[in-house]
């Protein structure tokens, strides 16, 4: 999937890279000498670390199913148990024991149930570290961006590939620069920042982007940064990267290094001294180049923020806390990888005990349950040492073990039908935290605590007695100039021309050109159930011929007759949203469709496509062209177009022609590079085939 391909050919000058590209450059393997990676490029990556949690056993089964016997690099892999740790039934305990035994037999670092949430462990133990690439088979890997690491999620097949070979693939997303200006008003937190961003920029502005935060960052605590980075996932992004600065290094020196043994392999004086020297020298490795390119630029004025709440049941809907004061709550939650670190617990404790006197603690309102779980056993111990834990218990909180719990809809305290919950977690999708007939809101730890005390959604000011600052609306803007770079007039035409003329080496067995007629399915948000009906998903013996017949059946039953083998499917935006079923990709291949073009893709579908050898391209301008062409015709869910696409892989160019592949050109588009490593995966029939080929088990 070549995201925002209209931007990818415009290289301002040699060596100009944003910070995301620089980190990927360090961890890319098998690229030609002198090759500089760019947005849109497919690369093979060898991440510093790869974490999996309760899904470690399914990953292990996939790993063994590939014929692998020994993890390629045990020091690269981290296994944690965190999601379903309250579940003591025999089946879950057996799975947990299987994971532990497997980790020990492979020499992998293992953290048992109760040690903490995997993402928190990755930060505490230095597996995620500034300027490194860390991945996990969990969508909130973005969290690592809070400490200057590039963190991004993988699917299970990717994780198994990393276990077996040390590497997998990634396509560098379009990178959005988000500038934070000014400073936060007193009492406003990182949660308010990201909830505001999700609510203000709620039209998929950063969908499937990497984000780099810039601007007035130094006053933002590392805890605030971790929260913001964590919820860039809900904003739609694939990573959320903060810069390395003095604030971060001071945090390591004061908060992390004293907790580490002197010989700790990841957080130690040697690594921190190096970062400090680089920072003092303004080393280019720590920052984007001045003329680095971004797909878009967004701006948020921190001074304009107030306590913000998202919901109900959507992160894209948000409002100032005062606008929701009429909403009564039944349950409050201070849990999860988003907001249950020490600073979060202390913020909540300051609300329930504003005087600091543990004998003067406000009590949780009658009829309200307030659940609290630390992000890790270390955080819980620290909260007990500072007194924050005792204050929360005296207020009437119900303690849960360090883990995910109600955030993922597991264990004690789930929302019942008709109940309203307010949570410091990251997702309030309908039914995620319990009943689909419940309402869920998201807010900062301070607002959650105030709501638990008052019995309705409330500002901390209502409990503490200090008035909130006057709120006159959020100030945010988009730099429109950065969003469009005309394909016909690149910023550096010579650089683009030279890049295309040099050509991409084509692997034997991979086509240098992909050509087909466009079949247009004019709809946004075509989900995986529309592509491949759910009733077939868990049938393992569906013949390929049947998969071809039912492909797109729930979207348009006429698709089977209209589309022919060799056609190229074109659809709108967010194609493949929904479940993780791999058959959504393999059914299209069974139909004989070699390539899908869309305005944007659901990320899991995108990864499943490449992992199963289905090619994808993102070309928003093609969607606009087709929609304009058929604007005055009767709507059809599927139509043949007599318009052809030719993807010249070698020269990284797409031509759209009328009538035939040799007809008049109606659109020309430079796209990102599909390198030999990715070609090898496609030729091998997908990632699993590639891994087996590497292992000699095919």
Automatic annotation (TrEMBL):
> Is the Nucleotide-binding keyword given for this protein?
no
Q: What Enzyme Commission number does this protein have?
A: 4.2.1.36
Sequence ranges assigned to domain Aconitase A/isopropylmalate dehydratase small subunit swivel in this UniProt record? 502-620
User: PROSITE patterns, from UniProt?
Assistant: ACONITASE_1, ACONITASE_2
Q: Does the keyword Cell division apply?
A: no
What processes in GO biological process is this protein linked to? lysine biosynthetic process via aminoadipic acid
Pfam families given in the database record? Aconitase, Aconitase_C
Q: Where in the cell is it found?
A: Mitochondrion
Query: Where are the compositionally biased (Low complexity) regions?
Result: 487-496
- What function is annotated for this protein? Catalyzes the reversible hydration of cis-homoaconitate to (2R,3S)-homoisocitrate, a step in the alpha-aminoadipate pathway for lysine biosynthesis.
Q: What is this protein called?
A: Homoaconitase, mitochondrial
Q: Which organism is it from?
A: Zygosaccharomyces rouxii
């Amino acid at each position: 999937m070549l995201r925002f391909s209209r931007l990818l050919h415009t290289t301002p000058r040699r060596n100009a890279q944003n910070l995301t590209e620089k980190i990927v450059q360090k961890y890319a393997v098998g690229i030609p000498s002198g090759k500089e990676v760019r947005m849109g490029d497919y690369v093979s990556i060898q991440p510093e670390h790869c974490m999996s949690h309760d899904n470690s056993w399914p990953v292990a089964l996939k790993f063994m199913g590939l014929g692998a016997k020994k993890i390629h690099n045990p020091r690269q892999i981290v296994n944690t148990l965190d999601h379903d740790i309250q579940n003591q039934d025999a089946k879950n305990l057996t799975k947990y024991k299987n994971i532990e035994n497997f980790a020990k037999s492979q020499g992998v670092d293992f953290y048992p149930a109760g040690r903490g949430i995997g993402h928190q462990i990755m930060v505490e133990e230095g597996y995620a570290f500034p300027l490194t690439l860390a991945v996990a088979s969990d969508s909130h890997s973005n969290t690592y961006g809070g400490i200057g690491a590039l963190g991004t999620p993988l699917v299970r097949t990717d994780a198994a590939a990393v276990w077996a070979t040390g590497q997998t693939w990634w396509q560098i997303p379009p990178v959005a620069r988000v500038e934070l200006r000014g400073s936060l008003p007193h009492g406003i937190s990182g949660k308010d920042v990201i909830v505001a961003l999700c609510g203000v920029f709620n039209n998929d502005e950063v969908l499937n982007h990497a984000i780099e935060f810039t601007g007035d960052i130094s006053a933002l605590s590392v805890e605030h940064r971790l929260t913001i980075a964590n919820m860039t996932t809900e904003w739609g992004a694939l990573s959320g990267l903060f810069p390395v600065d003095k604030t971060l290094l001071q945090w390591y020196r004061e908060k992390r290094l004293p907790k580490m043994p002197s010989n700790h392999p990841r957080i130690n004086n040697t690594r921190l001294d190096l970062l400090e020297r680089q920072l003092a020298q303004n080393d280019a490795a720590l920052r984007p180049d001045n003329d680095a390119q971004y797909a878009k630029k967004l701006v948020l004025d921190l001074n304009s923020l107030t306590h913000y709440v998202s919901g109900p049941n959507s992160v894209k809907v948000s409002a100032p806390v005062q606008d929701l004061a009429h909403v009564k709550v039944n349950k409050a939650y201070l849990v999860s990888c988003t907001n249950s670190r020490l600073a979060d617990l202390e913020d909540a404790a300051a609300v329930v005990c504003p005087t600091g006197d543990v004998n003067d603690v406000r009590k949780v309102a009658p009829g309200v349950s307030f659940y609290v779980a630390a992000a890790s056993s270390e955080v819980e111990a620290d909260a007990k040492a500072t007194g924050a834990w005792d204050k929360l218990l005296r207020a009437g909180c119900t303690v849960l073990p360090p883990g995910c719990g109600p955030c993922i809809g597991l264990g004690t305290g789930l929302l019942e039908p008709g109940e309203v919950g307010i949570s410091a977690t990251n997702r309030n999708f309908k039914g995620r935290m319990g009943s689909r007939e419940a309402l869920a809101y998201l807010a900062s730890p301070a607002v959650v605590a105030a709501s638990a005390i008052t019995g309705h959604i409330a500002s901390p000011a209502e409990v503490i007695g200090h008035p909130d600052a006057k709120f006159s609306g959020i100030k945010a803007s988009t730099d429109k100039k950065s969003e469009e770079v005309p394909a016909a007039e690149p910023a550096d035409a010579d650089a683009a021309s030279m890049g295309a003329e040099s050509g991409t080496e084509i692997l034997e067995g991979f086509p240098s050109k992909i050509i087909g007629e466009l079949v247009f399915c004019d709809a946004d948000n075509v989900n995986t159930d529309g592509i491949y009906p759910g009733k077939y998903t868990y049938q393992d013996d569906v013949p390929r011929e049947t998969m071809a017949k039912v492909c797109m059946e729930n979207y348009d039953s006429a698709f089977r007759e209209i589309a022919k083998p060799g056609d190229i499917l074109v659809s709108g935006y967010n194609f493949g949203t929904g479940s993780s079923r791999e058959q959504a990709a393999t059914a299209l291949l069974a139909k004989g469709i070699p390539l899908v073009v869309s305005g944007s893709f659901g990320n899991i579908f995108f990864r499943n496509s490449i992992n199963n050898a289905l090619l994808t391209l993102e070309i928003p301008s093609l969607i606009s062209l087709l929609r304009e062409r058929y604007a005055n015709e009767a709507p059809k869910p599927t139509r043949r177009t007599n318009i052809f696409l030719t993807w010249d892989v070698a020269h990284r160019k797409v031509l759209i022609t009328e009538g035939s592949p040799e007809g008049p050109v109606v659109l020309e588009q430079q796209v990102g590079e599909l390198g030999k490593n990715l070609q090898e995966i496609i030729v091998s029939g997908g990632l699993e085939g590639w891994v087996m080929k590497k292992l000699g088990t095919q």
